[in-house]
Structure formats: C-alpha cells, structure tokens
Predict the 3D structure of the following.
Amino acid sequence: MSNTLSIDGARLWNSLMELGEIGGTEKGGSRRLALTELDHQGRELVCGWMRDAGLTISFDRMGNIFGRRPGRDNSLAPVMTGSHIDTQPSGGKFDGCYGVLAGLEVMRVLKDHAIVTTAPLELAIWTNEEGVRFVPTMMGSGVFSKSIPLDHALAATDANGLTVGDEVKARGFFGDEEPGQHPVGSYYEVHIEQGPVLEANENTIGVVTGVLGQRLMNITVTGQEAHAGPTPMAIRKDALQHSLPLMTEILALGRSHGDSGRATIGQVAVLPGARNTIPGLVKFSVDLRNLDRTVLEEMANKAKMAAAAAQERTGLTFEVDDLQTITPTVFHYANVEMVDAACKSRGYSHQRIVSGAGHDACFISRIAPTSMIFVPCKDGISHNEIEDAAPTDLEAGANVLLDVLLRASA
Ligand SMILES: [Zn+2]
C-alpha cells in the first residue's frame, strides 16, 4: 500500500523555503537561535501548519512541541518522528528543519488520503538542539530522555544572563507535561547527512546504523630545550622529534579499527617555538572515534600504551590527559532494517552509513527503538548559510520516512 502513496515534494520544498525566510540571511541561510523571537516565529509558523494537518499540539516544560495524530488504538505508544528548527548563527535552511517538515509532509499526505494508522503518530520539535545560545546541545531531547536533568536545562543562561526557563515561558511554550512523561513506541528522524559520503558514492539515501562515540585526550611530551647548532642529533631530547612517531601511530589507529574508525590530531603546540631552539615541549590533541564502544576503548588503550612505550624508549616524559568520553549510539536493528527495506521497495540507491555528528535521535534511542534516514547535502557542507540539498533527494528521504512511519504504526 505504502508505495502507492507518496509525499508532495513541491509542498515540502515550499515549506522549507518559507520557514527559511524567518531569520533569513544574505547568502540564503537562516539565523534562528533557540528560544529567540525569531525561533518563536518559526515555531508559530510550523505549529499552524501542524494544526492544519490535523495534529493536536502540546508542549512539555522544556518547550518541546508535540503534534499528535490519533490512531485506531490510542492506548498504543505513538510512533514518533521529529527534529529541530533552531539554527546555528550562520545556519542553513535544511539542518533540522528538513526533519520536522518532512514529518509534517507525511502528516499532510495521510490527511489528504484520510488514512488512519493503528498506533497514533507524533511529530516532535525538540528545543535547542544546536546548543549555541544555551549549552548543552540536544537539550530538549536530552531532557525528554532523562539524560539531562530538567532543572539543569532550565537554569542554563545565555550571554545576557537570560535562562532557558525564562525564555520558554516568555515564548509561551511552557507546557504542563513533565518531559519524558509520555511513552514513545519508536522514533525515526530524517536529516541531511552534513558530510560528503552519500554525494561521493552517488547514493540517495543513507541508512544510518548509529552515531560515532568519541574519546578526547591531550598528550604532553616534555624533553629539553637546547641550541639547535651545538647539540648533536644523537643526544638531544627533542620533544617534537620523539612526538612524531607517536602521532603517526595514533593516526594509524583510525585506519586499522574498522570503517567507523577515526583518529585526528587537530592541534599541535611546539614550544618554545623558536627556529634555532630544539623544542622542549610538545602538546597535541587526540580525537578518536568509533561506532563500537569496545573498539573505541581499544583504540584509546592503544594510544595510551603507545605513549607509555615512547616514554620507555626515549626517556622523555609522555603525559596523557583523558578529557571526555562520548558513548557511541547504535540504532535498533529492526528499525535500521525497516529503513533499508523502504529504500529497496522504492528503488532508491542507498547505503549503510554512520553519523559523525550528534542528533536528537541519539538521546531518543536511549528510551525507544530508533533509527535515522540521511539524504545528501551539496558538497557535504552544513552549519553554513550556503547549505543546500536537491529537492528530489529531500522528496526521496521523506518518502522513506512515510513508508517506515506507516509500517511501524500499522
Ligand atoms: Zn540538526
């Protein structure tokens, strides 16, 4: 049945363009920081569209918005889709907005065809995903999934000392519901890829299997400064010379630990930074990523062991500082398979893909079976006013969303 039903790509595109004009920027992007007057205008516009599509709107105390479409059996937990409509300071029209408006487009099509699902459907707009005006990122979905305490989120302040709590109330989006109070049967989020993989492989849809976890460290190598001329190579304690093999070893970890392995050294400080002085100190950042928690741990341990071995070998001091661990998100197998099956039945070129960036779906996956659908964005560019995506790809992603929402709520 679902293949005879398709979303209206032009209507989706027009809604994206209309929302993008609120806070529109010179280069064609949008600036609607979370819970500002412009974000409020965007929310009002989309809530109006949601009501027109037959959805009943409610808010929770975090200002998360839910548009509910009843099913035949409303005792069932709703099948949910959603994303965010707040933007980066110089954001594009598609990041987040596409997920919300593709969900809206699904609701519009179901209304047009008077289709009633068994389980109810819900469209969520999560508050402050971007984390620009208020930290942390993915705040609304984090609170909804009980991963971030509500009082902690409401007390977060912007640069002018205004709190999230004040701003949610001021914009009229402070609801009665305790965040996370209502159950979610399953969750699907469609999003632009924000990277170059789909475009490079000429695939229309990315079937997202999970989101990479991260291990962030700093390594400080201490040798001894000395004159570059009089000190023979064999007896110098050159912090840079002895850092280089370790850096090479750490970067190789990204290649030797599966497709989702990543290793990046993005910052290097060489001190004292004089042309004719042997460096006495090198400090560099290490960013390790993987989809597999155990493998990520293994990468981190190997980096630490390599540093210890370098210390043993060279007699210099190699100090490793563990800064942060972000656990990988692995999406639910059955949900991922359902997205894959929808791509196949539509005949869309597709591939499995992991997300390097965080999304609301990461938090929701902690409380409900979840997966994501990616579509390509032009040149892999996002968080930029020039962010762009092809209308046909956006339409395809929304069709996959339509199919999986129908299947999951059947
Ligand atoms: Zn986003």
Remarks:
- The chain has a mean pLDDT of 96.
- The pocket of zinc ion is lined by residues 84, 95-96, 129, 191, 359 (CB under 6 Å).
